[in-house]
């Protein structure tokens, strides 16, 4: 059962629009402050510092670009890895549900009932909690523990049951590992100290724009707006991809919804 086409990214247009409007408001504030400084400071005085400020701006700009680019790559890799984790967990659940076909009817019914309950828990309890950045209850983990116990307690009566149990144990391990990885990946990858460094670097870059002396003041204000806006957009990217299950850009639960509808029809 291929799930790759079902696990995808959902974009909340209105939420993203609000974030862009916030960035535009911040751009307007910085540009207005720059215009205020331009009226207070003479261009001739500022131009004396252009040579030295240019070298420093280049050095700081390179360092900040490396750090900012590194963070963007890290959060994107985490997001992409989280999509693979979700797909792996859905596929492991589906595989386990099918592979126990060789189990005795009573034990097979218990395992499949537990897996259906687990899927319902992920859809109705865990996913909404992850979307709110809330703690995920232990209900799903407890259900999987009971499923794992039922998988292990089979005493094979023939080679077919032995093969089914061995395959079920492998799928059970995949499922448990994928669940743990998903829960770990709900924690934002960018710590507060790194956000502090990013914001401080952005303020330093903008400060350099203020100390350059340029004859064409409107053009200088436009360059300030472009710099602030670009950094703001990258901050949105980092913020959204750092939390893969919440925010305006998040991973869908369509794979689980499809599995929830499909499992009752598997005999």
What does this structure look like?
The protein has 267 residues and is mainly α. It has one domain. Helices cover 77% and strands 2% of the residues. The chain has a two-stranded antiparallel sheet. The relative contact order is 0.20. The N terminus is likely disordered.
What would the keywords be for this entry?
267 residues; mainly alpha; two-stranded antiparallel sheet; disordered N terminus
Q: What topology emerges from the helices and strands here?
A:
Layout: E1 9-11, H1 13-40, H2 43-47, H3 50-99, H4 105-131, H5 139-152, H6 159-185, H7 192-210, H8 217-242, E2 249-251, H9 254-262
Antiparallel strand pairs: 1-2
How many domains is the backbone divided into? 1
Oligomeric grouping of the chains: single chain
Beta-strand content bin: under 5%
* Biggest sheet layout: 2 strands, antiparallel
Discrete helix count: 9
Summed up:
The protein has 267 residues and is mostly helical. It has 9 helices and 2 strands.
